[in-house]
Each structure stands twice: as C-alpha cells, then as structure tokens.
Predict the 3D structure of the following.
Amino acid sequence: MFEFSLYTFRERWQLFVGSILTVAVGVGLMQASLRVLIAAQDPPVPAGASVIEAARIRESYDGATTLMGMTMLLSAFLAIFVVSSTFAFTVAQRRRDLALLRLVGGSKRQLRRLLLSEALLLGACGAVLGVPVGMLALRVQIWLTKELGFLPQDFTVSPSGWVVLATAAAGVVIALLGVRAAAWRAAKVRPLEALRDTGAARQVMTPARWVVGLLLAGVAAGLVVLAQAVGSVAALVVAMGFAMIGAVALSLLSPLVVPLTSRVFGFVLRYSTLGRIAEANLREGVRRSASTAAPLIVLISLVLGLFGALSSLTKAAAQEQLDTVNGDLIVRSTGAEAGRVSTVDGVAVASPEIEVPMALTMTVLNADSGEPEEEKYYSGITAIDPAAYQRTHDVSMLAGSLADLSGDTIAATLISEHRAEIGTTASAELDGRTLALRLVGTMPEGLASGESFLVPLSVVPPDVLAGAPAETVVVLADGADPAAVTKTLRGKGFEVSTVADWVASTSARREQDDVGIMVVLMGLAGLYTALAVVNSVVIAYAARRHEFATARVTGLKRVQVVRMALIESCAVTFIGLFLGGLVVAGTLLGVGAATGSALGTPVVAVPWTLGSILAAGAFVVTSVTSVLTTLSATRPRPVTLVAARE
Amino acid sequence: MTETGPNGATDSVAAAVVELRGVTREYGSKQARVCALAGVDVAFSPGTWTAVMGPSGSGKSTLLHCAAGLEQVSGGQVFLLGEEITDASDNKLTELRRRSIGFVFQTFNLINSLSAEQNVALPLKLAGRTVAKKQVRAALAAVGLADRLRHRPAELSGGQQQRVAIARAMVTRPAVLFADEPTGALDSKSARNVMTLLRDLVSSDNQTIVMVTHDPAAAASADSVLYLSDGRIIDQDFRPTVHGVADRLARLER
C-alpha cells in the first residue's frame, strides 16, 4: 500500500511537501520557544550579588519567561491548527483517488491505515527536519528577544536533548491526530464517488463542524464577558485566548460565509464572464475556499487581536494616568534634589515620588480561596509624602486610608487575584536592615500599574533616597505662570515636562515595548502562518490542473484562466480577512469592556495601520502564489490533461 | 414483466450470476422524488454478455450500480452468485469487489500516478494476495499491452487506457464484469478493439458481462440487449444487429 503513497507523491508532491513543511516549522517553533522558556526560568545569578541585584536579574528574566510562555503556547496552538488543517485538507483533496481505491477492492480499514501511515511518515520526516529548523528558529528568537531588551545580552541556552525529542514526538502526534478525523471521514467515501468528475465531498458543514464551531464561538463570547471582570494583564491573556478560540471557531464556520462572499463578488463582477466563472468556482469549491482562508483567519485574529489589545491597554493606561494625576508639571531629578522643588516660587504643592530599591515579603490572600500565600516584591515600591501625594492624585481605596501612612507603614496595590487584610505586617529588606511595615491601605489594580506599593519617605534612610530616581508632581500656585516656573526649575538643573507630555512619553515607551512584544511573540509565528497560507493556496490550485485544462479547452486563454484563479484567490483572501476581522472586533470589544469598567469610558485602539499593511500583504502573497501556481498548473497543453482524465 | 436470462429459460434463476428482483430506486425526498428504477426483474446467466440500452435518464447506470452493490436499492432484492447482497455490509461489499466483481468505466478511472502494471496489480494488493508478476503481465498481455507495462496512463492512448482498465478488472477473475459505457470515450477503431476483447472473454473464459451503453455498434456485439425506459425493462432483443438496435433506440427516444 505504501507503494501507492509513494507514487501519489510523484503526482501530488505539493500536498506532501506542504505537509512535511508545516510539521517541520511547527516543531521548530515549539522547540525554540520551549528551549528559551526553560533557559529563562533559571536565571544565572552571580555569586555574591546582593538580594536586590539578584532580584533585578531574576525580574529581567521574569518578563522573558512570561513572554516565552505565551510564545510557546502560541507555537503549540499554531502547530496543531496549521498541521491538522493542512493534513485534513490534503485528505479531502484526494477524495476521488480514495474512492477509486474503494472501487477496486480497498476496504475502509485499508484506507484509514494508508492515510494514517502516510501521516506517520510525513510527520516523522517533518519532525526530523524540524530539528535544524528549530536551531535556526532558536537563534532568531534569542537574537530578537535580546535585541528588544526582554533578555540580558549574556543570555545563553544550553542544549537540551529531551526538548528536541519531545517536540519532535509532538509533531508526529499532532500530524496523526490531525489526519485521524479526516481519515475516518475519508474512509466513508462511497466508491461511486470515483465516477464523479469532482472528488469534492458533498457536505462541507458536517455536524461535527457545526457543533464544535458553535461551541467554540460560545466559549469565545464567554471570554468577552469574562474580560470585563479581570485586570489588565489578565485581559491580555484573555484577548489571546479569544483570538485563538475565535479563529478556530470561525475557521470551522467559514464554509457558511463562502457562498455569501462569492455572491457579493459575483454581484460586483456581474458584467465580466471571468468574474461569473470565478463566482461559480467559489461556490463549487467551498471546502477548498474554507481551507485556504483558515490560516489567514488565524493570522489576522492573532496579530491584529493581540496588537489591538496591547495598544488599547497602553492607550487606556495613558488615559488613566491623565485622569488620576492632578498636577501641572512633572519634575525629574535624583532623590537628593527632589526636596528642593517645593521651595521654588510658584510651586503650590510638590509631591516627590522616589523609587526605592527594596525587597518586600508579604503574606497575601488568594482572592478566591482565601488561602494565604507568601509573595516577594522587588520593584514598584515608591516612597511618597502622603499629604502631597493625596493632593496630586485621585486615590481610590479598597480599604484603609493613605492618611494613616506614617511611621513604619505601607499601602499596597495588588493584582486582582490577591488581597490583603489591613494590619498585615510586611517585611522589608532595605539597605541591609529589615523593617516590619504595617499595611494601612489597599488600592485597586489600575491599568498603568500592576503590583505597586507606597511607603512614607520617613521609612527610607536619606542616603538611599538621595541616590534613587525621583519624579515630582507639581501643582502651581494660583496665578503662577507655567512657563516662568518651568524656566526657573530648568535653571536649577531640573528636568521638567507638562503632565500631558510626561504621560505621552511614558505611553510612547510602552508602545515601543508593545511592538517588541508583538515581534517576539508573533514574528516567527506570523511567518509560519503566512507559510501556511501560501501552502494551502498551492495545494488548492495545483490539484486543479484538469479543471483549468477543461476551461481552456472550452475557450479560455491561459491568461484568462490565470485571471480567473486570481479573482478567486482575492475572494478567498477577502473571506479570510473578513472573518479574521470579526475575531479582532470581538477582541477589541472585550478590551473595550475591560477598559470601560476601569475608566468609566471604554478606550480602544484599533490597529488600522497594521491592519492595512497585513491586508495588503495578504492580498499580495495570495495573489502572487495563485498566479505562479496557476501558471505552473497550466503549463502542459490542455488537451493532454483533458484526455488523461484525472 | 418477469424477464429472464438471454436464453429465455426461467429455471436458470438459481444459476444466475446476478439477479435483481423487483428492484426500485428512488432519489430525493417526498416532494422532489425521482424514480430511477421502477421495479426491475432481471437475471444475468453465466457466460452471457448483456447490453443495457435506453435513452438518457432511463435508469441504465442506476441499474448497473444497484446490481454491483454500489448503490443501495429503495426496494426489492439483489442477488450475486445466489447470495442476497441487498443490505450487505460495507465489508461484505468490499469482499465482493475483491473477489466477484470487476468494473470498467467510460472514464477509465486508472490511478494516474501508477504505471499500467501497478494499476493492474492494485486489486490483488488490496485483496492482500501475493502478486505474481506473471499473473499481472499475463492480464496485460491478454489485452494486447505486453509492451506497455511501465507506461503511466497519461502516456497511453484512450483505447490503451481502457484496455489497462479491463486488465485491472479481469486480473481477479471476477464472476461478473460490469462495464459502464466502456466505449464512450473511444474512437471507433479503439471501440471495436475493446468489443473484440470483451467477446473473447465471454467465448473463451465464459465471462459474464453486464454493459451499459449508448452505442448501437457496441450493443450489437453483445449476446442480448435489454431496453430500459423510465426505469422499467420494456424489451429484450436476443439477436441484436447494429441497425435493429439503432432503430429500436431511436423509437424509444422519440
């Protein structure tokens, strides 16, 4: 039987090469992100480093770990999605061949065994090829992550045999699972279908497709509701989940929109014969159109959904800062200088905020179970003058009051998963001493700040304060001229900006980080998905040689066939973009709800620019691929293909 | 009409290779019901070659598909070698396709990626039998293609492809060969060759053949011709001539 596969390879190599490629790159991506993830989990802390230094190093790896965890999750998801949809598509494409085997005495079991052993072989080839691909991907991933500042320059990854083995095995298993359902379906092919000209399955929207598609759409809708209840970081994770689940749901339901879209295209192109043929082809090849659109839906959903969520949160954080900081100017200096700001003429209130290098250990309670957990915090600890701080910030408290922030005390903003009782004692390690700080207030998690803490200036020794960076929020006296005060402050060596400018520059920095996150997260994954798009176009069109030949025998010129295929691929791209756009809209809806509940008004950043670039890119890629594939499929003289009766 | 084998002997029923009793086949649901076969009784005796003719839509192909177990009948019974296959399981039907039934179609239905030799060997392989090269080559030699073993279908003419298809169908020595418009895609010379080949099978190997065709010349090569109209057998001609068949068909189509 394998002989049959081998010869099929000769005839339909695009199918097999495409399958191997998707497994190889999928395995490579999983391998790379898993290896970076493992290496980042165990940061190399040099001997003799202070607690704070060690904490800094650990923290620099912490962000990378989270990011790599997400990348790993994404790679695994894409590998599963792309490999299984590609494999299922290749099986669907060979329906007629399979029916023919049934006709000459093949049993259902033989068909299943053939398809599964093929998947095993292709999966194994892909997995082996995945090793060098993984090494390359690892290099690129590390370089990107370092270059974008998510990992220190001296970061190294040690070789890990089991990761290679595990991801390779995963590749084979994914290939087998991907083909399993398709093989069962294909085995049900009736021998009589071999006698039909098209080997297309009659029913594309199978009951399973309906059930799973609607179920996932329901889960995705549930996530939008959930997004409102959780904080900003969680919202990002929810957005990613939504993008993934929504993309799968719409890929499954996409056959429903294919006929609709083809009618729209048919209407637009109703005066052109080619357009009408293309419309008919689209309706005829629902399965093909849906399969080609699937990777595009995922690409658009993930890239635009995640980027939209990130930029919306950044925009909302900026809005939150503008809303909560009641000042005119922000003055930057060292802690030593900060005290002098209030002495300048025209300054009514000066609220110095000095970031303190402190290691904090606190027992917090799990918000759901009430279980106590000991947490350590190394950053986000700011020393303030409580009176001035309250005059320059809108502070909302969950419990307690900032007015009690005097002596050895602390106020905390915890993530929504945690809470803490007023009166709890936190242990702070600072400048070689250990202090016991009493918790006097808790504040709700904001969009701009994750976990953060406020302590009175008096807790921190003056020499520590003097060396730390400070930002002072300044409220001007009535009638004071902002320009004059700014000039005076600058004259004294301070760095001064308006609150609006300060918010804008913070926001710009976060935006840069957002782009970095997207590049690390989606850079390679995006390329993989783009590869899947190209792959499905090639698979879909290479199999249509006979159909194209018939069209030419009927009177179409080669150039017209190419144009017809181009119109079709544009329509399919449109379907992918449209459905992907729906998922993105859902993601932004969820993010809008989350920012709305935090700020009162929903804040959403629609990634128009990136969206347009992606849409244009998608059209270019699918068009070029379809033209090249159609050209190659129409190279033989049509009559030879028509006579051969494929 | 309780029609019988070509020799008109009603007692040949038990010995019939294929028999249909009261077979009906309907398509579609209540409103748009189309009746392709409206009660067909027919038996095909061993060693006979029967052509099935009729206008387009008369139910010829459906008759063939039902007799071969490719399509489920709506009513009635189908027997193959005396055994009822009306509601046979998929496995049973697969087994029959391996041992007792051979198919030849208008569109050849060869697997393009396989050579002539491999196409012919395929049914044996699928049946899990050891494939003797000699057996495969003999089958191809019997259809006059001993020198085309390694050619792929695209490198063969239509007539040659159909002969490969016949060799593939015959390699398992089936009890009955079903042919659906075997000359439909061939020029007249190739068609004549194929008919000669089928005649040889009947006379030298006592092969039973059921053939659906549009072509009076092909039908006239058979032992008898069944005429189908609106899903019923309306006549049978035991001494078919090209002219007689053509006239009869022309009257039916009017």
